[in-house]
Amino acid sequence: MKVAVVGGGVIGLSSALCVKERCPQAELTVVAGEFTPNTTGDGAAGIWQPPLWNVTQQELPWLQWTFDYLSRLYKTEFSHQIGLFCQSGYNVFTEEVPDPPWKDIVLGFRHLTEEELKRFPGYSYGWFETTLMLECKSYLPWLTQRLKEKGIKFEQRMIASLSEVCRDYDVVINCSGLSARTLVNDQEVQPGRGQIVRVHAPWVKHFILTHDMGTATYNTPYIIPGINTVALGGLNQIGDWDTGWREEDEKNIWHGAVQLIPSLKGARVLGKWTGLRPVRERIRIERETVNDTPVIHNYGHGGYGVTYHWGCALQAASLAAKAMDEVAAKTSSSRVVKSRY
C-alpha cells in the first residue's frame, strides 16, 4: 500500500509516524515544499495551550492524547534533546472569564490572587498553570530521523494540486496547512501573521500570556521562555500574507513586553522571525475522495499545531488505516472477479 503524506511540518511528520506505527507494512512518502528548519513550526515558541474556550467535545480527546504523549516523552532521557520541558506561567485578562474546558489537562490550574494580579497592571483576572513546552526546531529533526529509520521516504517538491499526488498513491493524507487554501481550494484557511523577537533573558522563568477579549488570540503581548532564548510576541494578523519584517510591529512587541517585565528593556536580541499560522475556524480532520483516491485531511490548526499535533495524528491515522483496508479489499475483490474469467 503506497501512502503519501503532504506536508513537512509538525502535523505532517507526526501523522506519518502514527500511520507507520499503526500500519507497518505501508510504504510511506512525505511530500512537501519545505522541511525543517524552514517550516512555520520551527519558528514557533512551542507552548502547549489550546484555544481558551472554542474547543469542541471532539477536540478534547485530541488535546488529552497530545498532552499524555508529551508527558511520556518528558520522562525519557532524551526529552531535552527534542526541546521538551515543563514550564509554569500566567494567563491574564482584562475582565473575569470562565475557566477553559482543558483546565484539568494541565497541571496545578488555579486562579490568581489579588496580590498576584498587582504584578500585571491593566489586568484584573487570571490563572496560573504548569504546562509543557516543545520547541519544534529540535523536535522536527528528531521526528525526521525516526521516520527515516522506519524507511519512510522524503520528497521535496512544490505541488499545485492534490490530484498530482493522488495519481501515484493508494491513500493520501493532506497535512498541507496554509497551502490547503490552494491545494484543495479551501477558502476557510487563511494566514494569521505573527512576528517573534527572541532575546537573551535567562532571568525570565515563567510564561505570560495576555488576553483582550475584543481581539484575536495571540494579538496581545506574550512572553514565553524557551531553553536558550525568550520569545516575545503579540501579533495574529488574520488575512495578512506579508512574511517580511515590520519595524512598527517590532516596536509594539517591545513595548508590550517591557510593560509586563521592565527588565527586558536591556535584553540582547538574538533573533527575529515572521511566520503565517494556518488559521481556520475548525480543524479539518475528515475523509474525502479525490480522483478515486481516499484523502484524509488534517489541517487548519492555526497557532495550536504543537498543542493538537499528536492527537490529530492519531485520529488521521485511524481514518487512513480504514481507507487502506477498504482499498485492499477492493483490490482483492477485483482480482477474484478477474480470476473467474
From TrEMBL:
Cell compartments where the protein resides: Cytoplasm, Cytosol; Peroxisome matrix; Presynaptic active zone; Secreted
One GO biological process this protein is involved in is: D-amino acid catabolic process
Is Transferase one of the keywords?
no
* List of residues binding FAD: 302-307
Q: Which cofactor does it need?
A: FAD
> Where does the secretion signal sit in this chain?
none
- Main subcellular localization, coarse class? cytoplasm
Per its UniProt record, what Gene3D superfamilies does this chain match? Answer: D-Amino Acid Oxidase, subunit A, domain 2, NAD(P)-binding Rossmann-like Domain
Flavoprotein as a keyword? yes
UniProt cross-references to InterPro entries, sorted A to Z: D-amino_acid_oxidase_CS, DAO, FAD-dep_OxRdtase
| Reactions catalysed according to its record | D-dopa + O2 + H2O = 3-(3,4-dihydroxyphenyl)pyruvate + H2O2 + NH4(+); D-phenylalanine + O2 + H2O = 3-phenylpyruvate + H2O2 + NH4(+); D-alanine + O2 + H2O = pyruvate + H2O2 + NH4(+); D-serine + O2 + H2O = 3-hydroxypyruvate + H2O2 + NH4(+)
Q: Which GO terms describe its molecular function?
A: D-amino-acid oxidase activity; FAD binding
Q: By what name is this protein known?
A: D-amino-acid oxidase
Provide the species name. Answer: Branchiostoma belcheri
